[in-house]
Structures are given as structure tokens and as C-alpha cells.
Amino acid sequence: MNKELVVSGGEEFVQIALLEDGRLMELHQENVDSNFAVGDMYLGKVKKLAPSLNAAFVDIGYSKDAFLHYHDLGPNVKSLLAYTQLVGNGKFKSPNLKSFRKEEMIHKDGTIDKVLAAGDNVVIQITKEPIHTKGPRITSEISIAGRYLILSPFSEKVSVSQKLKSKAERDRLVSLVESIKPEGFGIIIRTVAEGKKVAELQADLNYLMNKWQTVFKNIQKKKSPIKLLSEMDRASAILRDNFNEDYTKITVDDDELADDMTEYLDVIAPGKSGLIKVSKDSEVPLFERLGIERQIKFSFGKNVTIPQSKGAYLVIEHTEALHVIDVNSGNISRNSNNQEDSALAVNKIAASEVARQLRLRDMGGIIVVDFIDMTNNANKIELYEHLKTEMQKDRAKHKILPPSKFGLIQITRQRVRPELNIKTMEENPNEEVNQVEAPIVLVDKMDQILRNILEKKGRKIDSISLHVHPFVAAYLTKGFNSIQLKWFIKHKKWIKIVPRDSYKYLQFNFLNKNNTLYNESN
């Protein structure tokens, strides 16, 4: 699998696209002046306690106070509070925790009022960004993530990612890390550390300790609320969490972004910064030049066509409480002698697209998927296992339940950021209807329907014409290398374009020589 990262900078936000074999799999938009992002660390002030919720509300500078539950305090919160106070008062002058006297750990079933009081300064980290009317969700169990290691102040434990299965390798890594671990810190060894030498782990640990020194210096300022440490930009964070030998290219259209990413790539993967290419064009934006904008328009919206299926599509509905995805087969099942086998085939293709859509839109919470009905239990199990396999590519924490007796599959997926919502409808300049589908999506739909018509076996097609609004006809026939000519080269069939004054702006029909409508079933 070839992975490509495309990063486009703008005045207000940066767009980041992750492509796998040329197909858009993840899309991120990060505000240039982004604050309160997941991973950001703040020194906040406790505003009030909520004993009934066993939680506290903390002022970190956002318009709404952040929510800190007792279970998110972390067992070493008393040590963190004592350290924060001593450093703020100038009584402890080192980021090194070797000589710091740790406080007792709190009980997991305790109450918030035994730990915090209104007015306390507390170091916290954002775990969930502000969503709609809710403020940030935070934790005081802080950690700093690197390429191979995660640094946890006030803990002494060394642990290994559960995804690393080899006991021998786990033991080797624990032994190496324990030999270099500074006293007073705990370390989590990440999956990508597999096979790494002590020098590489030490370099990553030095990088993390420099970050902790930044936190220490900012605590000394004694101001609250104040940001202590920023999570790195999304593009670098994606490289940190994902970069491997599958990456073949990183394309950027901004020199400053390219420099930042080159500097970070030199740290985590020396010799690989050559993958970063700067591509500028003042007239055409990077996403349009690389065809990403087309994929965005085609992948978002209520109805999502599945190109590989030749007719199947998803209907995605959003409510306040959950997301509902309905799988529709189109006309595929009519062409199969075995409806059960056809349903399984379509469902598996749809499951792959569902997994992609969850990553692409960053959908969180409860997702209910209504697949095409199947009666064979073995097929239901096969679909369930296929969906689990596809979801393994998703970094967000998730859980998938087996199909219910109604054939529904329920998914819970961690929500840490607002869902990405891209509008695929545009203003209609010629009709009473306020919005219409984007023209770029319409042309793809035309091509798909045309392909389905031409691929029908046993049908003799003498001629075929496309009747459209005059504006669209002009667009399809414009230039020497027109869309009409491209269809002829692709399908080996000349499609006559007929302008129709009576047609609505984006209405179209394929007709035969008798002016009878073609459709996918005749």
C-alpha cells in the first residue's frame, strides 16, 4: 500500500489529506491559530466543584470551563499539584524529578472534594476538543507523546503497547528503556518501537524531556490560565503516529509548513525528508490539482456512491444522539442468480466504505449500520469479521458489536474532535431550489450511469444521446479535449450531447435512437 500525505496551507486553516493508493482516507482541517486541541497542556484554575458529578470545572481560557472528572485525575494527581505549587512559588527549581518527594496516590473510588478545591492551580491536558455547546474534556494524568515513547511524569512504571505481541521483543524493549529512564518518570513504549536500538530510543526520550522542560519553565510564570505546551501541528502529528515505509510522497504548498515537517521528519526518520516536495501554483489550489477536491465532493454528503460496486450506495443520517448508515444495493441484486451471495458481496464492499467514511468524517459516538438483509448466519459472521478487519486501520478507539437479530451492526467510536462536515451542495443560480449537488459530482454520476448502461450484457446499443441543460452541455463539449471526447476514448462509443432548454439546471437523461429513456434495468 502506497501512502501519500498532502498538506495545503491557507490564511485561516491548513488542510491535510491522507491518501492510500491514491484514494482519500482521512481529511483534517486545522485552524492556523488553533487552541484547545487534543494534547495541548494548560495550567488551569479550578472554578468550582460539582460533587454530584464527582467532577470539577476548570478555567483554561476557553469561553466555557473545561470538565475534569475524578476518574480523569490520575493516581499521581497529588504529586502533580504539589509540584505545580512548589515550582510556581520558586521552591523547586528543576524539571528533574529525582529529588522530588512524591505524594501518596489517590484511591480510584474517592471524591473530588478530597483532592481539589476552588482556586487551585492544576496542570491539565485536553482529551476532547470543545464540541457544540460543550467545553473541553480534560485530564490531569498528563503525558507527552514521541515517536517511540510516551513520557508520563510522576509515574515509575514502564509498559509496552498491547499491539506488540512478541514476548521476547517486549522484554528487550522494557530492559532497554529501564536502563535509560530518568527517575520520577514513567514510560509507555509504542508499537513502532519494535526492533529499535537504544540510541534511537534515547534520542526520542531526549526530545520528550526537552518538552517537559518547556512545561516546567511555563509553570514558573505562575499565570493561570496559560498554555504550557502545544500539541504539534496535525501534519507532524500524523507523521509521528503513522509514518512508515509505506509513505512514498509528502506534498506541501507552503514553505514554512514544509520546513517544519522536514525538521520533524529528520528527527523521527533520518534520511526520509527527501519525500517532502513543495508544489506551488498561484492559479490552481493544490487539492484541485491532485484531484483531492473531486474526491472530497464525491465522498461527503448524505448519499455516498460506492464506485467499486457499480450501483450500491450509502445513506448517512446524523442526529444529536447517533449516526445511522443505510446500505442500498441499487440494481446489483437483480443481476445475480443467488441473492444471498449478492447481498454478502455488496455488504462487504459497503463495510469497507463505512470504515473509510468513519475515518474520513471523523464520526464519533454511536453509529448504527443497516446492511442488506442476509439469512445465512455464516455470511453474517463473515461480514462482521470483514468489518473488524477494515476498522483495524482506524486509530480512534472503537468497538463493534455482532449483528443484531434485525441485521444491524452497532459501532462506538471515540469522539475527540468535532465531526468534519463538508458541504457538497451549492447554490442553484437558475432555480427556486436553494441548493443543488456540486457539478463536479454530477459529471462523475453521469459517467457511472453511462458505464452501467454500456456494460449491460446482451443489449444492442445503436446510438445513445445525453440530454442536458444548455449550460451543462456547453461544459461537456468545451475544448478539444472535452469530457465528451474523453468518454469516447474511454467507452469506445460516441455520446451525442443534446441541449434541452426545458431541462432544469442539473437534470439529465440518457436516451436511445427512439428517444426512449435508458435506465440500468432495461
UniProtKB/TrEMBL annotation:
GO terms for molecular function: hydrolase activity. It is an enzyme of class 3 (hydrolase). Its EC number is 3.1.26.-. It comes from the Bacteria. Pfam families: RNase_E_G. The keyword Cell membrane does not apply. Its cofactor is Mg(2+). Residues 143-416 form the RNA-binding protein AU-1/Ribonuclease E/G domain. This is Ribonuclease G. SUPFAM superfamilies: Nucleic acid-binding proteins. Keywords: Hydrolase, Magnesium, Metal-binding, RNA-binding. Coiled coil: none annotated.
